Amino acid sequence: MRPGKLDRRGWMLAGAGALVLALILPFALAGGLGRLVGGLWVTVMGAVMSLVAAMFGG
Question: If you average pLDDT over every residue of the chain, what do you get?
Answer without folding.
Answer: 90
